[in-house]
Amino acid sequence: MKLWIKVFLFSLTFMVLAVDIVAYTVLVNNFSATIQRETDQALTHHQSMSTMVSGRVLYERLRQSKLLLNSNEISSVLNEISGKHQANETALFFYYGEQPLSGSEWILISSHSAFREQVFAGTQPFSIIIDHEGKSYILCGSHLTLESNDYVIFTASDVTQIYSQHDEQLRFVQIVSLASAGIIATIMLLFIFLALKPLSEINHSIRQITKGDYSLRAKETGGQEFRELAGNINIMARSIEQNVQEIQRVADGRKRFIDNLAHEMKTPLTSIMGFADILRIKRSVKSKEREEYANIIVEETKRLRNLSGKLLELSSAGNLPLEFCMLDAKTFISEVCIATQPLLFGKQLEITCRIQKGTTFYADPELFKSLFYNVIENAVKASKFKQTITLKCWNDDQSAFFSITDQGIGMTPTEIENATDLFYTNNPSRSKQKGGINLGIGLALCKEIAVRHNGIMEISSPPEGGTTVSIILQKERRGGNETKHS
Q: On the chain, which terminus has fewer CB atoms closer than 10 Å, C or N?
């Protein structure tokens, strides 16, 4: 059963029951008060009738100029009074001792012998409500002393109209209750649809998200609970979208990695196998040809060696524990410059260093040097003859900053975005150059090393040319597996 049906049925049942209970309670209380009032009036009227009977007997005694009336004379007076009141709303009936004066017992009294015995045995007036032949009566009874004789007087007041009015009111309440239930049901349906409309929209959004539309966002409308629910669903959808994008990016990266790795391995292996077969199969090979083929095989082998070495270095950078120590920037950069001198000779390049005095930082020396070697190697590849590569280093209270800038052709925004992806190269033909130049692994390795140092690596390239690689390290922050060395 849907939520709106449950809410509707529960609310409608509760409201109808509440209205009916209140109306019924009011009617019952009003009816009880009316019956009590009529009973009190019947007892008061009963007392007045007793007084009237006593006065009438006194009047007859005075009229006949007797000291006392005998029982027959009193019975005659009482029967006369009883006969006159049979047609009125209040009927009278008399007993002398326990014998009815009219000769036959009144059926209202005979059908309630327990009440009659209660009146006969008591000394105060009693009353009871009885039903007879479709009518309702208030029957009252009490003792009456006439001329030193004990009589019992009964009066009956017809209250059928009060019960009829009560039944009509009950029927009216039932009709009004049904009409009110219809009106309330209509109003509640409209209210429930309006109140739960945001929930339907949220449910629709969830169904769309489950179908793969992770960019969809639920509308944050309705009550506070619905807005909070929609907000949480949007946070969930945003997180799922980011995770899916990340998974897709990783999957695409792995596919690209496998494709590029297969391509990078296939080219040198094909060359090696081809020229090796030529040397094996060809019976007469000139010395110059043999030297050329051998050189190609050696260069392609170096290319495979460089490729496997870079991949191993990248794998190790993400798994090996780091050994941090405090490094002096001037000494560190000097060692890097000396080690990279052989890379500069071919293009007659020059490295210029600008180091802020007193700059220090925490790092794993060998791994951090590998980062600089790879960045400088890429700078050498991008530079033309006799250009300059600039190394800068400075610090503040929280961080140490490094930058390596070349004067090459620069990079486009797309190339900057993809530069740290494995095997990415802005000029695939360079991957075939001697010595395995531009394998597309170096910057991916540099980024991994920066991350392991809890640092940031950024690449920028202005429109006029040149590329700057910046590294930012927190001076006192170290990784999880590092050990400190002085």
A: C
Q: Is 437 helix (H, G, I), strand (E, B) or coil?
A: coil
d(CA 426, CA 418): 9
Beta carbons of 254 and 243 less than 8 angstroms apart: no
Please answer whether residues 297 and 275 qualify as being in contact, where contact means their C-beta atoms are separated by less than 8 angstroms.
yes
Highest mean pLDDT among 105-114, 221-230, 325-334, 428-437: 325-334
Q: Measured between alpha carbons, how far apart are the two ends of the chain, in Å?
A: 72
> 180 and 17 in contact (C-beta within 8 Å)?
no
* Encoded tokens for 216: 């969809």
Query: Which one, of 18, 93, 15, 9, lies nearest residue 50 by Cα?
Result: 93
Q: What phi and psi values does residue 422 have, to the nearest 5 degrees?
A: -60, 135
Measure the CA–CA gap between 137 and 130, rounded to whole angstroms: 5
329-340 tens-digit pLDDT? 999 999 888 888
Q: Classify residue 148 by its DSSP letter.
A: T
The pTM of this model reads 0.43
Question: Do 74 and 59 touch, CB atoms closer than 8 A?
Answer: no
Helix or strand holding residue 412 (H, E):
none
Residues counted in the chain:
486
